[in-house]
Amino acid sequence: MASLNGLRVSQTDRTDPSSLGWPIHVKPVVQLPKTPELISATLKRAGRQELFFRTCRESFQSTSAFCLWIIHEDLCDEYPPEGWGPPPESPTPPPFSIETISGSGRGMVASRFIKSGETIVVERPIVIYPIIYGTYDERGVYGVVEDLLEAGFPALGETERLLYLDLWNCKTLTGTLGNQIRGISRMNGLCTRFTRSKHLPFYAGVFPSISRCNHSCGPNASATFDEETMATRLFARRPIAPGEQITISYIDTEIPYAFHQEELKTKYLFTCPCNYCKPTKPTKPSRPFKHPYWNIANQTTNKYVDLPAEIYASDIRREQIAFRMDHAKKLWVEWLSPSSKQSDKDLVQFHEDAMVILAQEGLESKRISHIAYLAHVCAALKDEGGFRRWGSILISLTGWPEGRDRLEVMKTWKDWLCDPTISPAWGLRLMARGKAQNTPPA
Ligand SMILES: [Zn+2]
Predict the structure, then answer these.
(1) 249 CA to centre of ligand 1 in angstroms
(2) Domain boundaries, the chain
(3) Which domain of life, per UniProt (predicted)?
(4) Which of 122, 365, 369, 390 could join 375 via S-S bond, C-beta 3.0 to 4.6 A?
């Protein structure tokens, strides 16, 4: 047993990374089934359960529905069919307007300065349906979803129907009202998650304003869905200037240029015109990276050496972002072992550089876990000032990991900030170092 500031904590518990909570110990994330094989396996697991449509109203007294929900049977008893309450508060007047964007239809534009972390809009979906397809197979399950959308559409309120039909439509599906409904759902769905679902937790929601946001590979905003209020909050990831377009990302942003262009073209029928795909920024990082983790082999990008230098440099940075996310936990565990040769400075540099790269690629949304690691590093070194500095930044950030235990995770960090010595990481590195000094060389 180790005694630290009056706390007696079993040493095995303290060195076990799982006692440190997020981001070091995280529950496995359910992945979206992406191939036809995985989808049929998912449906097989779901047994003979069915999909049908349900209308969501504010209360039993409401005369019109705000949302048409194509729901899988495993969620039917989890939520009341009606009675979602009035819509959650959204900023008034809204800090944006919907405007025509040259070459990108209509989009959302900031009408005043928006602070980093500020809520831009909170909206409920007009239509929400399960993501259970790999391709738009009209004879398969996806066809069933689209038939239900068409059948349920008249049950929506008139305002919602008009807002929905005004959204951008996929070019290949026009003509009948049914085709219009299908085309709009395919092009405007944002991924949402229902954690209570056993089989199909991922749904796509179509929103009146948030679905207007255009894509950027370095988005300045993000959307998070709250299943308890059936509403999505759009918030700024960095300061947004008046007149600047508000963007989100439709895809995984760490993949190289060639792959993400292909994905956007196949799924959303456009070639990405964002600044990160036509970079005007310098080809070299704004400060040099001098530490062992920068020089990793990069196998993916080597295939695209004929790309313009700026795009190539951006690919390498994005690969670094994924690499640093994957290796953070490994490095942490290694650093805490008595035999570790890793310097404290190198580990700090690893995370600080990650944040520089994230800012260069416009991916500030991903910095939150690096900040949490830096706070843990300070705790492990009993550096109270450092822990408070990083911890306060962490608490002030929006965009904590989604899920039902989110509030609990935030509360734990707030408690540690009140008294850093109760953090399970407190002094871990010093303890490991002490052990190493007491062990005679073999
Ligand atoms: Zn782009």
Answers:
(1) 9
(2) 2-29+276-438, 36-250
(3) Eukaryota
(4) 390
